Hints:
- It is a single chain.
- This protein is about 35% helix and about 10% strand.
- The strands form three sheets. A three-stranded antiparallel beta sheet has the order 1-3-2.
- It starts with a helix and ends in a 17-residue tail after the last helix.
- By secondary structure, it is of the alpha+beta class.
Amino acid sequence: MxxxxxxxxxxxxxADELAVAVGYTHRSVANSLYGRLGRQIGELLDFDPxxxxxxxxxxxxxxxxxxxxxxxxxxxxxxxxxxxxxxSHVLLPEEIxxxxxxxxxxxxxxxxxxxxxxxxxxxxxxxKYGTDCCICGFSFRAKFGDIGDGFIHxxxxxxxxxxxxxxxxxxxxxxxxxxxxxxxxxHRRVPAYTIxxxxxxxxHQKTAEPCGEREPPMTPVLKS
Length: 224
């Protein structure tokens, strides 16, 4: 979450965006984790951050009716110094078990959202769009044969921070099949890039190649 925040535009995000981007379902988790870290920093440096401990880490503003968190420059510099933010990689839903539970103390229990991992929704999405990446066209079946048959990530088009209350996924409207490479690039920013934005970046990169050079095949790197 800190890594994502550090690499966000102007190092600014919302609690909702931070929580959802790493697989949680509600801003309260971001508040809790940042608050605990703020308290620990206060204890180590012998100062009292007061009741709003997240203010030890972020500057808060509310310019358009929603709270924005901007990492304090001193804190961002400290993160860089200790090497916590070398990569902006964000855990995708496929990298977290759908039934995983994270507990904070005795009273807070958070279950990772499973919108993208719902089996029925996934099947309907693939039935409509197939298993080739809708951004770059990569096919695991074509590249790896039988072991790649049916493998693809499924990306949720609607930012989960905009979902309030009970929500039913429409597999055709809300989901798209994407390869792990493109999925990771979609989530390199908060809010996530759109599919058309990543397609435009790929198109620009291809047209920008020096004459005579051939684009290497796009082979996603899978986690073991």
